[in-house]
Amino acid sequence: MSDHIGWGGVARLGCVQAALGAVVVITTSTLNRVMVVELALPALLPGLLVALHYMVQVARPRMGHGSDVGGRRSPWILGGMAVLAAGGLGASAATAWMATRPVAGLVLAVLSFAAVGLGVAAAGTSLLVLLAKRVAPQRRAAAATIVWMMMIAGFAVTAGVAGALLDPYSPARLVAVTAGVGAVALLVTAIALYGVEGRARPGPAVPRPRQAASAAGFREALSQVWAEPAARRFTIFVFVSMLAFSAQDLILEPFAGIAFGFTPGESTALAGVQHGGVLLGMIVVALAGSGLAGRRLGSLRAWTVAGCIASALALAGLVLAGLLGPGWPLRANVFLLGAANGAFSIAAIGSMMRLAGEGREAREGVRMGLWGAAQAVAFGLGGLIGTGASDIARWAIASPATAYAVVFALESLLFLVAAALASTIGREEAASPAGDRDRPATHRPATDRLGARARGLPGRAALSRGKAAHAATASIFQSR
Predict the structure, then answer these.
(1) Exposed / middle / buried, residue 18 (Cβ in 10 Å: 0-12, 13-18, 19+)
(2) Angstrom distance (rounded) from CA 285 to CA 347
(3) Which of 200, 306, 417, 428 has an alpha carbon within 20 to 30 A of 241's alpha carbon?
(4) Which of 153, 81, 138 is nearest to 115 (CA)?
(5) Which alpha helices (DSSP H) does 135-170 contain, by range?
(6) 3 state SS of 123
(7) What is the C-alpha radius of gyration for the chain, rounded to an integer number of angstroms?
(8) Which of 368, 417, 128 is closest to 245 using CA atoms?
(9) What predicted TM-score, i.e. pTM, was given to this entire model?
(10) What does the pLDDT read at residue 401?
(11) Which helix or strand (DSSP H or E) is residue 84 part of?
């Protein structure tokens, strides 16, 4: 019987991602507005708090290692969701507190946003690993699209419902609505996870490690993953591509207002055009990469490279928009940028799910955590770098539109660098069995062992080598 889950299981995990997104959107969007508008606090404050929630996600590899050691992902997902819901509730209470006790409210906000980041790290990392392990390879692109579309739906539904419940605004109502969203998210997660992971597979006996041994085991696991060429290159690719992706997010609407005279409503609608393009790009890659259209059209790596190149070209179009002015078809340009972003991101997530299971056994969580940490740090830095670079360019260049064009050009170059990195991922592993060098012999594909026997290696010798590799693996577990 296959261990792969069907579309129903994918939809259940999508519900978990939607629940996660529901709590995050309340924390990073609604509370942002309340701090700036209702409390008249500097916009820098929520910006720094949101950046904090990204930065603490450098703990993702450690979270992934914990789920690797335990062998199950569901407890980490449910526990992470509980921490996330508690952090969201604490953040709303801190926001309400800032009106009367600003210092105490700020301290609680810092602690709560850190908890939000840790909750996202624990739940999000293990959820991706569970998807990678339980979804059939040919369905990964479509599964990633379904899960991320459900997360976006979680954003939209929560924003609409919570927005209606918050009127008329009061601090008590804010805390009550946030508590309700967190409780529903936790309940949905518990129901969706029930039975979806199945029973844990038997493996080497792992004694309960002491804290020092566990820390040593994590450092060893992280160094082993970083020593894998594919994992290391993919980490760098994720950081560069997500830096380019997030750097343009906060400057696109100001650019439309300054260079094209868009009103606030028109610039907000422009963001909707971009999101529509993102959705189209996701759907196209899901259909092409999973064979739902009849046959598979291109590999995930090819779609990742093409999406990065298309993103670079779309940003080059924005450079021309800054130089040529209102005559440029800005809306069409932004739609194409969104479609390219959606294509490369879903293809990259599909590649991430594939690569998570390659290399050393029982390191899937560490790999996924490493890539999630790279993405989170890139998102945290991207907004700051994008806005900071635009401010510097506007100070150095007389024309604001030209200044924005310079920043878009730099982001376009970043996407070209990301495309070059993506083109090398998996190439060596596909050309030769070198990708299996770091994998214990007992975990190599059965075809390798049969091939060794066919080349004249006695069966007893092959079994002896397998036992030696298994003993080496067991010693690694015991060192934790």
Answers:
(1) buried
(2) 7
(3) 428
(4) 81
(5) 140-165
(6) helix
(7) 24
(8) 417
(9) 0.71
(10) 85
(11) helix 74-97
- As given in the structure block, the two tokens for residue 264 are 């606030």
* CA 80 to chain centroid: 15
Secondary structure letter of residue 416 according to DSSP: H
What's the whole-number average pLDDT of the chain?
79
Domains of the chain in start order, with CATH, are 7-197 (1.20.1250.20), 213-439 (1.20.1250.20), 440-478 (no CATH)
Q: How far apart are CA 114 and CA 119, in angstroms?
A: 9
pLDDT tens-digit profile of 21-51?
Answer: 889 888 877 888 788 778 888 877 887 888 8
Poorest-confidence range of 65-69, 122-126, 250-254? 250-254
**Residue 1 corresponds to which tokens in the numbers above?**
């019987």
Task: Please compute, for residue 306, the number of CA atoms within 13 A of its CA located in the half-sphere on the CB side.
Answer: 16
| Cβ density class 306-333: b for 16+ within 10 Å, e for less | bbbbbbbbbbbbbbebbeeeeebebbeb
DSSP SS3 for 293: coil
Residue type, 61: P
Both tokens of 351, joined, read 């590649």
Peptide bond into 102 cis (omega under 30): no
- Dihedral of the CA atoms 346, 149, 84, 178 (nearest 10)? 150
**Residue at 105: amino acid letter:** G
In our burial notation (b when 16+ CB lie closer than 10 A, e otherwise), range 340-364 reads: bbbbbbbbbbbbbbbbbebbbbbbb
State the residue for tokens 């990195």: 421
Cβ proximity of 365 and 68 under 8 Å:
yes
- Cα distances (angstroms) measured from residue 333 to each of 205, 271, 338, 401: 56, 12, 9, 16
Q: Identity (one letter) of the amino acid at 276?
A: G
Structure tokens at 156: 């939209």
